[in-house]
Design goal:
Structural class of chain A: alpha/beta
Subcellular location (chain B): Cell membrane
Membrane topology (chain B): Multi-pass membrane protein
Number of helices of chain B: 12
Family (chain B): Belongs to the ABC-4 integral membrane protein family.
Protein name (chain B): ABC transporter permease
CATH architecture of chain A: 3-Layer(aba) Sandwich
Order of helices and strands of chain A: EEEHEEHEHHHEHEHEE
Bound molecules: adenosine-5'-triphosphate, magnesium ion
Number of strands of chain B: 11
CATH topology of chain A: Rossmann fold
Strand order of the largest sheet of chain A: 6-7-8-3-9-10
Largest sheet of chain A: 6 strands, mixed
Number of domains of chain A: 1
Radius of gyration of chain A: 17 Å
CATH class of chain A: Alpha Beta
Helix content of chain A: 25-40%
Main location (chain B): membrane
Radius of gyration of chain B: 31 Å
Distance between the termini of chain A: 20 Å
Oligomer: heterodimer
């Protein structure tokens, strides 16, 4: 599903050059639930962003669904992200000025689907994460766990084959975190969604199929 | 997408209200300025109705009040003959003080078909008046030598008065006024913009002076040959002063009068234009600042939108569309207010003036908003999603 070959990422500022990722090669199969662990600053988010086509590697290839992504235009990349990938972030990234339902509808907006269809899919997605009774709320009126569930609903509304989650439980207590984890496990099991999750929590990682450890931009396990 | 933008704007109505008010106020100011400009331009582009160059105006204090009318008329005829003997003098007419660009008016009214027609400019016009000002005759004729014999007092009217009195109907030969004082229209001249070139012409009638009216005349309009100079002006002055002992004579040129008369309209317009220009610059900077600020505040949102499938161009398009939509909302309110002016006929201007002003103000506002949002929008498109998402 996702194939990384010799991925290198170098950040250059005026004074320093950071090698954030060093020759990472990784194959993630369809339906796999992979977790990534490693100390802070080791390049986990960078790797996830590259997989999600939000960032480009300095060297190396990214293939998604057997398609090379290096030469894709901005428009094609946007299309890819919209159709294939759902993102979940540690800090949720909900739009505070939009109600829950409108937040969840967002990916469908970029597919030019009709208002009715958008609403229906968003409602279904919110049902899946158990938030159908909060659709008219603004993000400010929700708890952290609820916000993350909205973010998951947004990630799954377009039925993507891949979900990339960057510390989805990082801001939550363990009860809330387990709830989120259960939703992801359920998605993986029933819908066969491929999931890559960055986590700091060994317990969470243990529930996934495979664990990759990074250290200083290099894969150590 | 439009619905989405509406939702976004609606949910941020507090933040947007300031921007909306700014756009609304600028629109109303622009509407006022454009109304004035369109009105003045329309007047300016109409024919003047007379020729000002090489016309001099001599004002004098008439001290003939004691002599009888006939001798006064003879006195002026004599003076005229003397003046015409100067080779540079082409035409001389004596009249009242309401010469073009003088700021003086003299108005009258008369009944016509049971209606009282008011605010008609009344010009005492000798036979030579037409030549002095080179009035443009549209229909009929100007006064002739033996006019005195006619039963009804002959008058020449301008086109505007003709339209008010007769519409598209025939004007020549029509009788106006009451039984005691009947007047007959013998000619129609083009409207003359006597106030200045940026103001509309008024209704006008030209009446041949009776001998009795020479008592009150204190102005001569003299058409001189092109290139007549100060030395000639001195000779003319001397000639008049010799004839009219003890009179205070002042000679001015219509060309100079025109400039100062035009300025009475232009200067306020320029001041207003400058003030509103600064206001608009201020609004533009404010608009630019707010949009710029918004975009920086919305970096997270922009990154997120990119992550879920927006292209860079899509982002800048959305931001520009948001601004234009906001402007449209403000304009809808503004147009509602602006449209009241023609509907209630507040200032008695032609509806066309308002409609053009409305159009210009709308186009200007859209252009302003577009210009102010294009650059911030472009910057937003360049925001790197991975970085923006990383920040908070
Ligand atoms: N935009 C950037 N410019 C320069 N350096 C960057 C940039 N983004 C990340 N880095 C560097 O790249 C390295 C990897 O960062 P990354 O965010 O991937 O770490 P991480 O493993 O996700 O850490 P954390 O667990 O704290 O989220 C770090 O050293 C960071 O300083
Ligand atoms: Mg990270």
């Amino acid at each position: 599903m996702i194939r990384l070959r010799n991925i290198e990422k170098i950040y250059r500022t005026d004074t320093v050059e950071t090698l954030a990722l060093n020759s990472i090669s990784l194959d993630i199969a369809k339906g796999e639930f992979l977790s990534i662990m490693g100390p802070s600053g080791c390049g986990k988010s960078t790797l996830l962003n590259i997989m999600g086509l939000l960032d480009t590697p300095s060297n190396g290839q990214v293939q998604i669904d057997d398609q090379a992504t290096t030469a894709l235009s901005d428009k094609q990349l946007a299309h890819f992200r919209n159709r294939k990938i759902g993102f979940i972030f540690q800090s949720y990234h909900l739009i505070n000025d939009l109600k829950v339902l409108d937040n969840v509808e967002l990916p469908m907006l970029y597919r030019n689907s009709s208002a009715g269809e958008r609403k229906q899919l968003a409602t279904e997605a919110l049902e899946k994460v158990g938030l159908s009774n909060r659709i008219k709320h603004f993000p400010k009126q929700l708890s952290g766990g609820q916000k993350q569930r909205v973010a998951i609903a947004r990630a799954i509304v377009g039925k993507p084959e891949i979900i990339l989650a960057d510390e989805p439980t990082g801001n939550l207590d363990s009860a809330m975190g387990n709830e989120i984890m259960d939703i992801l496990l359920e998605l993986n099991k029933t819908d066969g969604t491929t999931i890559v999750m960055v986590t700091h929590d060994e317990n969470m990682a243990r529930k996934t199929h495979r664990l990759v450890r990074l250290f200083d931009g290099t894969q150590v396990q | 997408m439009l619905k989405h933008l509406f939702i976004l704007i609606w949910n941020k109505k507090k933040q947007n209200s300031l921007l909306l008010t700014e756009v609304l106020v600028s629109f109303l100011v622009l509407f006022a300025v454009f109304t004035l400009l369109v009105f003045n331009y329309r007047n300016y582009s109409k024919p003047r109705g007379f020729e000002y160059s090489n016309v001099w105006v001599a004002n004098f204090n008439n001290d003939l009040g004691t002599t009888n009318g006939d001798s006064a008329a003879m006195f002026y005829d004599n003076l005229r003959r003397n003046m015409l003997s100067l080779p540079q003098v082409k035409a001389v007419c004596f009249t009242n003080a309401n010469t073009p660009f003088s700021g003086n008016t003299s108005q009258t009214g008369f009944p016509y078909k049971g209606k009282d027609v008011r605010s008609i400019n009344y010009y005492l016009a000798e036979d030579s008046y037409k030549d002095a000002l080179q009035l443009h005759l549209l229909e009929g004729r100007w006064f002739a030598k033996n006019e005195g014999a006619a039963k009804n007092k002959p008058i020449v009217i301008n086109n505007k008065l003709k339209t008010e009195l007769f519409g598209t109907g025939k004007a020549l030969g029509q009788l106006v006024g009451d039984d005691k004082n009947q007047m007959q229209v013998i000619g129609v001249v083009e409207d003359g913009k006597y106030t200045n070139e940026y103001m509309p012409a008024g209704k006008a009638m030209y009446v041949r002076p009776d001998t009795s009216e020479y008592h009150w005349m204190g102005t001569a309009m003299i058409r001189v040959a092109p290139g007549s100079d100060a030395a000639f002006e001195g000779r003319l002055y001397k000639l008049m002063a010799n004839t009219m002992k003890n009179a205070n004579i002042e000679i001015t040129h219509l060309e100079d009068k025109r400039k100062s008369a035009n300025n009475t309209t232009l200067v306020p317009v320029i001041i207003l234009g400058t003030v509103s220009g600064f206001l608009i610059i201020n609004v533009a900077l404010g608009l630019f600042g707010v949009l710029w600020y918004n975009i920086n505040k919305r970096r997270g949102e922009i990154g997120l939108r990119r992550a879920v499938g927006a292209t860079g161009n899509g982002i800048s398009g959305q931001l520009v569309a948001e601004s234009l939509l906001l402007a449209t909302l403000a304009l809808l309110v503004g147009i509602f207010f602006a449209i009241q002016f023609p509907l209630l006929n507040v200032l008695d201007l032609p509806t066309g003036v308002y409609l053009w002003a409305l159009l210009f103000a709308i186009v200007f506002i859209y252009a302003l908003v577009l210009v102010c949002s294009l650059y911030p929008g472009k910057q937003a498109a360049a925001i790197y999603p991975a970085v923006a998402l990383h920040e908070d």
